Amino acid sequence: KRQLLSLRTIFIISVGLFILILLRQFIVEKKLNTKFEALIIELNKKEKQSHKKRSDLILKDAITEGILLGLERIEENKTFLQSNFDLKYVANKLNSNTSYVSKTINKNKHQSFKDYLNKLRIDFIVVELRNNSKLRRHSLDAIAKDIGYSNGSSFSKIFKKITGINPSYFIDKLNDGN
Prior knowledge:
The structure is a single chain. By secondary structure, the protein is an all-alpha fold. Helices cover 81% and strands 0% of the residues. It has helices at residues 2-77, 87-93, 98-109, 113-131, 140-146, 152-163, 167-177. The longest helix has 76 residues, at 2-77.
């Protein structure tokens, strides 16, 4: 009987240990599965975010291209000569917002909107003054208004800042050559 009791006890303890080992293995596997699932969920989130970033970049590239094409049209049409031409006006014309337009000019034209506009206007008037002797007879105020500035004083300051010489000196030199 004793031996039978002892075998029974050993059997019960063995079965108990076996059950505990199985239970422990089940718990460990459950934790691993949970960690695995969490990792997969996290990877899926990162993949979605990465995809979203790629699609955002594609969208931003498309927006940038649209703005740059719009700016080309503005340059070709000489719209920048209008006195009401400002960042808000451009954003409206390009169906965009001032932030996108400004950032696009900063990044792609390597200058602020204000500097971009002033350079367009001054480059335009330099060519016009070289090619049109009648325009050279106009006052600086009249020339300034023709290219969108409110007065000759602000035009002169910007002209000198961009070209390094005063517009009156430039005009005089052009007239001396003809």
